[in-house]
Design goal:
Layout (H helix, E strand, L loop, with lengths): L1 H21 L6 E8 L4 E4 L4 E3 L8 E6 L6 H17 L9 E6 L2 H4 L3 H6 L6 E4 L2 H11 L3 E4 L9 E4 L3 E4 L4 E6 L5 H21 L1
Parallel strand pairs: 4-5, 5-6
Antiparallel strand pairs: 1-10, 2-3, 2-6, 4-9, 7-8, 9-10
């Protein structure tokens, strides 16, 4: 399955530059007042514990998806890395957000999540786990997903999910959401402004 997915990824990577350069920048949504992310308990791609505490002390961009996704997920993950690279020219590394991939199809995601994310960037964080815990984070972020299968034995099914990226500040608070197509320069410019403004507020206490 991974080999097939990677073959698809190679095709999408070739189109990412054209996709992002041609597309218009969608208006971001500020969350005011910022909302504290609720408690949840998932695992990262290495089997380590990942909860709300892991959001603290750093910026994060959280994207909901699944490893069998044929298009939206690989394109978004590639575009988000392009956004991070753009930010790297103008911002110190500690303020550049981590990318956290919330994999909502644990039956198929858990065993391949580490290898899947390694093809994008070694620093990507993938998290998944029990459905109840996934749903806690989904609800806290105001996102949506649905496994489109008729029975637990069905293997070939799609997953419907939002394509919005949630921006979480170092206090584990949801402060904004951004929508596709994630143009590297314009999205990076927005995030730099957002982060600088938020850090001034945090520093003031």
């Amino acid at each position: 399955m991974i080999r097939s997915a990677i073959a698809k990824l190679q095709i999408f990577f070739l189109s990412v530059a054209f996709f992002t350069c041609a597309a218009a920048f969608e208006s971001p949504q500020s969350i005011d007042p910022a909302r504290l992310v609720g408690e949840f308990q998932l695992e990262d791609q290495y089997g380590g514990s990942f909860g709300v505490e892991q959001f603290k002390g750093q910026w994060s961009m959280v994207f909901v998806g699944f490893t069998s996704c044929p298009d939206v997920c690989p394109v978004t993950l590639a575009n988000l890395e392009a956004v991070r690279a753009e930010m790297g020219f103008r911002m110190s590394p500690e303020r550049i957000p981590n990318i956290v991939f919330l994999a909502v199809d644990p039956d198929r995601d858990r065993s391949v999540l580490k290898d899947y994310l390694a093809y994008f960037h070694p620093q990507y964080v993938g998290i998944t786990g029990r459905e109840a815990e996934i749903n806690k984070l989904i609800k806290s972020l105001g996102e949506f997903y649905r496994l489109d299968r008729k029975s637990v034995d069905e293997k070939n099914y799609n997953v419907t999910h939002t394509a919005i990226v949630s921006i979480i500040n170092p206090e584990a608070k949801l402060v904004a959401k951004i929508s596709p197509p994630f143009h590297p320069h314009k999205t990076g410019e927005y995030l730099i402004k957002l982060i600088n403004e938020q850090m001034r507020l945090i520093d003031k206490g």
